[in-house]
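Memo to structure team: turn this sequence into structure tokens by end of day. - J.P.
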Amino acid sequence: MSTSLYLYAGGSRVPLELDADHVAIELAQAKSLGVDEASVPALASGTRMPAGLVLLSRSELPAKTAAKLEKSGALRHVYRRGSALAVPLPEIRIEVDAPKELAAVLAALASSKVASEVLSKDAGQIVVRPKSGTGEDALELASYVYEQARPASSAPRMLQVTPRPGVR
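Reply from structure team:
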């Protein structure tokens, strides 16, 4: 896994830093592997996120359990973007403004080293999923498509947690 991942926002390259202190767990998949709140109490008290994820401190997850969850794809890595925590999901949304852009995007998808499948496509938007099912591949593919085809937008679906603003 690369620790120097990035994405494009507003046409600018935005670096993401791996957060070694946190992980996100897909709760339903973890439970199907026998990992639940009884075996990992932090799953009950972690931060609930959309898509069935629970954000928790890596230190609250036993190493063997973390390895089991990562191998199965139930563990998602967490990144920092400024003061926010971000969890990339295995989905990319690509916005195009013209048929020429669409052709360039499809060519970039076909030439990428990240294997993917198109989930939906219309005149203005393509939704793609990396076959690996990892958020890291989604980040890599979204950036590659942007660099090769320069569509209006090419971004992975991400969940973010931002710190609460201070009380004034």
